[in-house]
């Protein structure tokens, strides 16, 4: 990763600062009450460091078409409660109401604009950094600001106007959360303590196979343990018949990516036969009951919902004896109590290990939070998709934007704002 500007490199007191954050949170479908405020809490350090600036928050909640796609009024109230400061909400994004509110701010003020994804340009305009910089959204906001702080690691894999549109218009600076995420993930990827293992599960099977490919071919990890839907695919490719119901579920989940994923996974099995560790037993949902089965008892015409007991014990032991653990995705259908055992024991092992455990975002991170294990992990990422993309070795547009902006404003590194 190249150089990015951080809050240590700049003086933003008295400046008007656009701050892009990701506080997209799970909401109760009836009351819209926050079910988990982890992402809001994680941006507090950056906002506290900007206490003498005029802070304009760019945020989103969900996306158009989803049930939890709402205004951000509730987010401003929740943030204000957690921050202990007034957060004024503006029912606008970059129109006259928003611009007037920004121009009348005083040092120490915080305003939150409405859901940025309610702006058509944010969700529909695609292209490079220059094309996105020409959107009205970016042009209007850049005209009333001195700097842009990106603290939305969970959106770093998105090439959208509010993430990368300010690259060449304003000094773009990594917030504390963004910097923390990159440093912690870099630690696991670039200098892992051995033995290093990856534990990949869930139903994003295509993404997990790409992550496994990157980690094994670059020597980042010594072994990949597969769980969940990822394990089902590798078992099938290793010649284990799972049953038509499990095969069809995999094919439907992978859809158009089936052929490419199977090809990559097949090559991995051929090139790294000793490095990919698959379950020796599984748990199937037979008419609502957990039934543990050895591989020799397959196929079965019931959905496989978890690792079997023997596999859970083996994985737990591997985690507890590893120097570095990179974990992404649940081991099974943890939402059902009878099939949560694999996921729960896997996370318990991560909490108990002396190794450095990095937990990917998404559902896994939410479960860590719900079980009160957050402080016992090496690092729990706030970014599901962004974390996966980084683990897969891909360039994150949000990080690329920060690097390009840093290079542009390098001439006055002690205070890039003076270079404008």
Q: What report would you give on this structure?
A:
- This protein has 2 domains: 199 residues, Phosphoglycerate kinase, N-terminal domain (Rossmann fold), CATH 3.40.50.1260; 161 residues, 3-Layer(aba) Sandwich (Rossmann fold), CATH 3.40.50.1260.
- It is built from 18 helices and 16 strands.
- The strands form 3 sheets. The protein has a 7-stranded parallel sheet with strand order 1-7-6-2-3-5-4, sandwiched between helices. Strands 10-9-8-14-15-16 form a 6-stranded parallel sheet, sandwiched between helices. Strands 12-11-13 form a 3-stranded antiparallel sheet.
- Helix 10 packs parallel to helix 13.
- It is elongated, with a radius of gyration of 23 Å.
- The model has no long low-confidence stretch (mean pLDDT 93).
How would you describe this structure in keywords?
Rossmann fold; six-stranded parallel sheet; 420 residues; 18 helices; alpha/beta; seven-stranded parallel sheet; 40% helix
TL;DR of this structure?
The chain is built from 18 helices and 16 strands. The chain has 420 residues and is an alpha/beta fold.
Structural class: alpha/beta
**For the largest beta sheet, what order do the strands appear in spatially?**
1-7-6-2-3-5-4
Radius of gyration: 23 Å
Distance between the termini: 25 Å
Itemize the secondary structure elements and their pairings:
Elements: E1 5-6, E2 16-20, H1 38-42, H2 44-49, E3 54-58, H3 73-83, E4 88-90, H4 96-103, E5 110-113, H5 120-124, H6 129-133, H7 136-142, E6 147-150, H8 161-164, E7 172-174, H9 176-190, E8 196-200, H10 205-217, E9 223-226, H11 228-237, H12 244-254, H13 258-271, E10 276-277, E11 281-286, E12 289-294, E13 304-307, H14 309-321, E14 324-328, H15 341-352, E15 356-359, H16 363-370, E16 379-380, H17 384-391, H18 397-408
Parallel strand pairs: 1-7, 2-3, 2-6, 3-5, 4-5, 6-7, 8-9, 8-14, 9-10, 14-15, 15-16
Antiparallel strand pairs: 11-12, 11-13
């Amino acid at each position: 990763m190249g150089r990015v500007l951080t809050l240590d490199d700049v003086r933003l007191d008295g400046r008007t600062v656009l701050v892009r954050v990701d506080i997209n949170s799970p909401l109760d479908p009836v009351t819209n009450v926050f079910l988990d405020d982890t992402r809001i809490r994680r941006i507090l350090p950056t906002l506290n460091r900007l206490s003498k600036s005029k802070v304009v928050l760019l945020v989103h909640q969900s996306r158009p078409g989803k049930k939890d796609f709402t205004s951000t009024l509730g987010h401003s109230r929740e943030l204000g409660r957690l921050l202990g400061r007034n957060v004024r909400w503006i029912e606008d994004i970059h129109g006259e109401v928003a611009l007037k509110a920004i121009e009348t701010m005083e040092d120490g003020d915080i305003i939150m604009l409405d859901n940025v994804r309610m702006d058509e340009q944010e969700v529909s305009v695609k292209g490079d950094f220059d094309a996105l910089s020409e959107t009205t959204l970016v042009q209007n906001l850049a005209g009333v600001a001195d700097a842009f702080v990106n603290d939305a690691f969970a959106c770093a894999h998105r090439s959208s106007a509010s993430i990368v549109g300010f690259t060449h218009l304003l000094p773009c600076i990594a917030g504390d959360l963004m910097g923390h995420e990159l440093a912690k993930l870099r630690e696991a990827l670039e200098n892992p303590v051995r033995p290093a293992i990856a534990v990949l599960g869930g139903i994003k099977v295509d993404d997990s196979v790409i992550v496994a490919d990157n980690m094994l071919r670059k020597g980042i990890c010594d072994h990949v343990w597969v769980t969940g839907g990822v394990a089902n695919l590798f078992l099938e490719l290793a010649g284990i018949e799972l049953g038509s119901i499990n095969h069809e579920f995999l094919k439907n989940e992978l859809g158009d990516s089936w052929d490419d994923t199977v090809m990559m996974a097949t090559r991995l099995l051929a090139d790294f036969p000793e490095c990919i560790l698959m379950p020796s037993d599984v748990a199937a949902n037979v008419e609502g009951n957990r039934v543990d089965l050895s591989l020799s008892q397959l196929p079965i015409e019931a959905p496989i919902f978890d690792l079997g007991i023997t596999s859970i014990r083996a994985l737990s032991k591997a985690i507890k004896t590893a120097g570095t653990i990179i974990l992404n995705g649940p081991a099974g259908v943890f939402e059902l109590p009878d099939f949560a055992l694999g996921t729960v024991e896997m996370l318990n092992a991560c909490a108990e290990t002396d190794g450095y455990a990095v937990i990917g975002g998404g559902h896994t991170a939410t479960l860590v939070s719900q079980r009160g294990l957050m402080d016992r992990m090496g690092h729990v990422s706030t970014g599901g998709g962004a974390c996966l993309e980084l683990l897969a070795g891909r360039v994150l547009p949000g990080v690329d934007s920060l690097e390009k902006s840093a290079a542009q404003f390098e001439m006055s590194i002690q205070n890039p704002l003076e270079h404008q």
